[in-house]
Amino acid sequence: MSSKSFIGQLASKMPYIVGGLLFFASMYFWMYKYPAHLAFQEQSQLFLWNSDYFSQTVCNSAGMAHYIGAFLTQFYYEIWWGAAIVSLIITGIYALTYVTLRKATSVKVFIVSFLSLLPALFAWSSQLGKHSLLALPVALLFTLGAIIGYQYFHKVLRSKYLYYTTIILTIILLHYLFGVISFLYAIYIVASEIVQNKNYASISFIAVSAVLPFLWYIATPTTLERIYTSNCYHRLLDGEPQMTYNAHEEDALHYSFLARYNKWGAIISRAEKRMPLDMASRQVLLCALAQKGLLLDRMFDFPVINSKDLISEQLENMTEPMTVSDIFFSIGFLNQAEQAAHNAQQIYQSYSVRSFQRWAECCIIKGDNNLAKKYLDALDQTLFYKNWAKSRRDLVGNKTAIGDHKVYGPISRRLMKDTYYFSNDELDNILAHSTGPTIDFNINYDYLIAYLILKNDLDKLAAMHEGYTGRLNKATQEALVLYWMQHHQSFKDMPWRIDRDVVTNVIEFYKNLNSGGTMKTMHPRFGKTYWYYNVFASKLFQ
Description:
By secondary structure, the protein is mainly alpha-helical. The protein contains 31 helices and no strands. Helix 9 runs parallel beside helix 11 (200-219).
């Protein structure tokens, strides 16, 4: 076979090669690089299988794009399904663009194969924004399909009036069903009329008919928001496309993704390889340590900044609002868990299946049975959560079953009977009420001790451990030995069981500090101790 023949065959196969590479690259990207994005998008909507949801969605402008996008997004429940769906749509956009360009131009196959990547890569990038759901790629896919339909069938419409009537109705219908992106259909027809017929009267008529729906939406602002069906449309309209990689956002989404499925070990392993970048991620990490019973032993192995890294009602970066709800729920603060789930609706900009889950389980534990049934009824109408709703319905009003539940049982036993207003400044008192009189291990007790240590409230910490002779965790030992140093001349008669190396290290730490030791020079040896945090880190970020 000659080289020219081989190159010719390769060029003819190029669309299949490029399309295949695009699909597999997209699959790898969404499954292994952006799985947290897919999980976030799945949980941030509530797709219901009933006629009311269909009619309320589709009867709005661009409603069909929104409905189809939401229908497909629910399958992100399984990450590999989500990756496959996004990849198929992106590859479909590539294929339809290729068919369109081949039909409309005489450009060589090799060049068209790569030009056709541009809309597909645009659709890919549009999904990088965490709120940019599938409405935009779906609308683009159907618009390209309409253009191909016009290419093949416009010659069938021999009657001029039938031709123009069909085009105008199609423009209006596409715009209503799929939003502003469908203007590509009108633009293509106008361009075709200019090149082929040069009938400027008909061109003007088609162009005006394309603009009329948009003017109608502008005149009715209440429907304008629904034109665009997703934040990506809003950003494109405003000229501020949010399609770039954000390391902090990705970090927070990934930690929240792991927390949602209780992958506490994976959270700790991730933090060991790459330190958390923001407060939300650090809160999830400390929660994971607490769930594993390691909070007071390993708290200072990671870059803790202050007590807000432990638990806070408000995060500096609300990338994933359910992070707050997860942490409050894990320690039994159900009122705050519910409130955080309500706040999440403002971030998600729609009803969220994950919020409905949280409200349902909080109501079940607290005994709000009628409200719990209301949320479970809604989840009964979903595809992937109806079995979860069925299993939780058996718990409603059944205190014995709740008490025996692996997750809900411990939380129900730690519930405070009195209503209270949450305050970060009163967190120690709130935790103390939920912990009880003993110092036996539970997650609330660990949070309480960690909070006192991070707040440097050593007097209260010492008072809590008065007369306690049991084994103390690393952070507690380091804090109590410092308390003893501040009030006594020697370590003689110290009432707690403090390891010898802890006493030795605290003496060495303050010797180094008094000899001019700095944050940088003392970090290699003492960077993972409470004393280092007390002297340097806690003051640096006040």
